[in-house]
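Predict the assembly for these two chains.
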Amino acid sequence: MRDVVDLRTLPSVVAEFGGLLCTDIRALNKMPGPERGGRDTVRVFWKDRFATPPPKLRSTLLLQHLIAWRLQVAAYDGLDDTTRKAIRRRGAMMPEGRDLGIGAVLRRTWQGRTIEVIVEQDGFRWEDKTYPSLSAIARTATGTRWNGPRFFGLRDEAS
Amino acid sequence: MERPPFLWLARRGVMSKSRLRCAIYTRKSTDEGLDQSFNSLDAQREACIAFIASQKAEGWSALAKGYDDGGYSGGNMERPALQHLLADIAAGRVNIIVVYKIDRLTRSLMDFARIVEIFDRHKVSFVSVTQAINTTSSLGRLAQNELHSFAQFEREVTGERIRDKIAASKKKGMWMGGTLPLGYDAPDPGSRSLKVNQEEADTVRHIFETYLALGSVHKLESILYKARIRSKRYVTRAGKVRGDQVFSRGALFHLLRNRTYLGETVHKDKSYPGQHTAIIDPELFDAVQQQLDRNSVRRRATRQQVARSPLAGRIFDLNGRSMTPTFSYGRHGKLYRYYLANALKHHDSDDATPLMRVSAKKLEGALSDTLRRLFPKRADVGLSQIERIDVLPDRVTLWLALELLDQMRAKLHPDETVCEDAAHPKWVRLSLPICVGSKGNAPLIIPGDTPVGRPDPVLVKALRDAHAMLERDCKGMPWCETAPKDRYRRKLFALAFLAPELQKAIFEGRHIAIFSLALLLSFEIPLSWADQKQLLAQYLIE
């Protein structure tokens, strides 16, 4: 058995030991299943690697996933901030209307005025200002709360 | 004739010695069971001629012309021979009318009174061969009226008997005639049970099932219209073609409520087991009845607030169709009134003309303002003075009385025009630039040229759920004490360990359309990120 290396404290070193890590993960893959006492082997592996007691988890596969994640995060870096925020957020990933593609134009006449919106990378542009959603534009333009996608005709009105 | 009948002659100056022309009236109804023996037209006539011959000494002579009503009821006066007779009486060609029995002339007390009145007016006498009727005495009149009361009674009893017979037959489940329901054909001659028409029966089942699925007779109506399903076509005994019409909502309600389809015979509000075969299962029928009951509108007896739309009936859309007043309640019960175009169209609703809705308050306000400006001294000129309004996308045309033309002319704005119409000389047409229609509001959408990823909401949610199952230890590393209980969630859990690049791609929607959660879960997620990427590379877009 090799010496225990605390990988989290030494990310630069770990990068150099990439090959070594891959071997570790291959070893995990080849690890026998729980019916042949595999769970204990994996727990021993955890203790060896991380110098902390493993979780009281009974699923060998999950334990393997947890170990694999820790090893690979140390080697290649984990989730970036954007993705982490996306995980924590609720609701749709993309405001409705964005799927029309960048540069799409939404035009609607409202009480004699023409409201024209252009879809951009970071939102919707109307009269030199960028808004996060179509609803925001509809509200600013009309002074009333509107369902933006509906206001701009994205919802199928015919029942 | 063993007994000489009572006569009422001579009273009105009919000279006994002069020649008296006797008209013989005979009648026989179709109902053979009703009349007793000796009732054929010839037999009646024979008896009358014999009687006239016996009075030959008095100068009676039978007219060669016979007044014979074969197959007519005595219940009314719609009989050709009787009408003919009355005409001849009016022309003075007859002195005496001879009938076999009084009920030959009429069975209705009212009609008898009228006939006697006509006889009186034309000084015509009236003799019944077998009955001693003398209308000159009070006793004779009593006997006569009594006789007619019984005749009328008999007639009513006959009607009751027929009604009872129909009720009894329907209780036995027989088809007693009437409009044939869709799905059945008329019984064979001699039979009294409806025959199932398989093709129509399928249509009926289709209608029931469609209604159950749609839950709306209104929608059912337009679907049947588009599918060209029409009502039962049948030929009447007179040879006229009936039915084969577009189903109206009322007809559909009747069809969906018709217990005949359960194999029952309906009489008034009761139904009995019928002799014909059912074409709708009781379960389906009951489900449809329940849905109809649920959907029926129960109107409260309280007085409802009525939205008044002063232009109703006089406002027309672009196509000249009447616009319907409608209203809806906004937040806090605020009333919004509209005039709606095309609201009355059911069938051709796939017409390209969009539904146009005009705010009633806005339109009426704009019109009132304009009228006040044009006629400042005329308080009486208001919305009620407008004969007709046509709402165009950018203008409104009013019809106003011709007498108002001179007063308004000076006050018109340049974009307001007024013109006379030769076809309608009483009115002038005033065109105003009032834009209330929402026709120009149809939004325009031009897609962009740079496509963006479309995150699959199902995948995004699955990934978020997977992470929600994961705990973190004190150093922020993934941690888990107990695995999820069910298999599906354990499977889902593995998604939290997907390589960061793969998770990012899912959140950004950088994958091809067929990449779905089901597809992702069908794989065993490898531990190594490199293996994962290799497995899923074909679904990702760089």
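Residues 72 and 78 of chain A are 8 Å apart (CA to CA). Chain A touches chain B through 53 residues (CB under 8 Å).
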